Amino acid sequence: MAKKSPFDLSKCARPNILALEPYRCARDDYKDDGTNILLDANENAYGPGLEMTNGAVNGHTHEKTADLHRYPDPHQTELKQLLCNLRNTHHHTTKSLKPQSLFVGVGSDEVIDALLRCFCIPGRDKVLVCPPTYGMYAVSAQVNDLEIVKVPLDTSRNFKLRPETINDALSSDPNIKIVYICSPGNPTANLITKSDIQQVLEHPTWNGVVVLDEAYIDFSPEGSSLAEWVTEWPNLVVMQTLSKAFGLAGIRLGAAFTSPEISNLLNNLKAPYNISSPTSALACTALQPKNLAVMRRNRQRIVEQRDRMMRELPKIPGVGSFLGGAESNFLLAEILNRPRSRGGQPSNETALALYERLAETKGVVVRFRGKEVGCLGCLRMTVGTEEEVDKLLEEMRSVLQDIYRNGSIGEAEDVQEQDANDIVA
User: Fold this and answer.
1) Cβ distance 69 to 57 under 8 Å?
2) Coiled coil located at which positions (predicted)?
């Protein structure tokens, strides 16, 4: 189904990017089938500088080890097809994603930066973000000398997107070229509704790009990803990563699903061999059916521990309400200046003290988010293993008890006393 959009790539992308002649290597024209004598790229024909025995390095064998002296595939077509297979769910369209609609980068951070360099002229153009949100949007914008326009999420409605306010900003400022929307949100852990995103995409006059960051989408209900929706909207980019649900943060792989026209520009401006051979091989392996089953089993274990944290954390005197949602692998919780039964209120001072003491004396590291919009007194806690959650619950109770008993923050309390008011549904 065709959608209305005024998007004109020729007027939105930077002229120098539209005119860019990408770096090309001989293997763009003559793909190696494994039988060619490769004398085109000044590689070391004797192999990697590693002590190897029967294809193994220090006893560790990997199918791509022997090829490390060769540059990786600059196109990553196999990897892109596997990512398309994963996201062609047909929940949102009858159309299918193809590799031509994909850009893969060194984590989502490369995707974020590439989009800015593609569409935004330094010192003139702007990007719009919706705090509280992922901090790298603003960092990358600053690096690229771009002004940041902020339209905060609606904190009175559980961090709901405000599409009408976003559209007003887009109408009043044509120099806004990119809107970044995080769904599920970070640190809010809630999904942005499809209808709210569509309202921004349907802006009648704005000529820019909507970037939907779905880093945590696999922790959300089945069919939540809008990746395949890029086949319907020419100015939609959906970012994803293998760092979260797939448990592959160490390989640094991010992806952008978008129109073939935008994908072509992103691929033109990237470094020629930005994805390493080991990263590509591991990602392709992870996307095979048997390993997708492993990911889904681990995801279920995380969801079970997430549900447990939602039950048990509010039983700790001094833990207040959960803010945002629970469609991710973390929770955002208020920390109070005294137990709820004693009239406790969200407190940055208490939350920061708890955060510091957990890390410094208990070996438990969470994130203090109290300075974010609408997150007063909040800690963001990633869902760990059963044993890690055991430790988190035990140490949070102990440290908060110590904070209140010593009267270092708020009034001294007898936190052994607990009544029904301490428990939050």
Assistant:
1) no
2) none
